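Single-chain item
Fold in token form
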Amino acid sequence: ITTRRSLAQLQQALQELARKFAREEMAPKAAHHDETGEFPAEIARKAWELGLMNTHVPPEYGGMGLGVLDGCIITEELAWGCTGIATAMEANALAAAPVIVAGNDEQKKEFLGRLTSEPLFAAYAVTEPGAGSDVAGIRTKARKVGDDYVIDGTKMWITNGSIADLAIVWAKTEDGKVSGFIVEKDDPGFSARDIQKKFSLRVSVTSELIFDNCR
């Protein structure tokens, strides 16, 4: 009973924190960002400082290790302030999830540790022009060359694509299996093009990602 009561209190505190942030920092500036498309870097930085981003990252890598329900409570409040800004911030959680689930300790320290040590953005790249989000239908390839993997293909509608410092990219290896690869924005052969004139969520960057012999 004590555990349940403590958890409920924590969730209520998170809800109140996120609600206050959405009301004071996001809602007053939402129209400006939606009209101009200006990325809300300063708002996101403040959210990061308050611990409202990267909430699922385990404590040993600098996060709070919150659960899915906790994340939903926070995101619901932030989305009230501005759905586009909330989408940009929540993309980090989507990108971090595969590393939390399946990454080794070295990958977790590098990928997750960077997200919690400074206000960086991450992207989750699975959707493709001809396959949508059907993982079995993706055509992006990854082949082994020496000790490296080289990726070729295109991803579409990727949130945070052009501003992300790190991306989780899904590609088919030569054995036909689908694997996730950690790609950094400066990796050779990687480029991004923003998709313009969206109907909504204009403040959230949406991009086409191109991998041309990306090592």
Q: What stands out?
A: Residues 2-36 form the longest helix (35 residues). The longest strand covers residues 148-159.
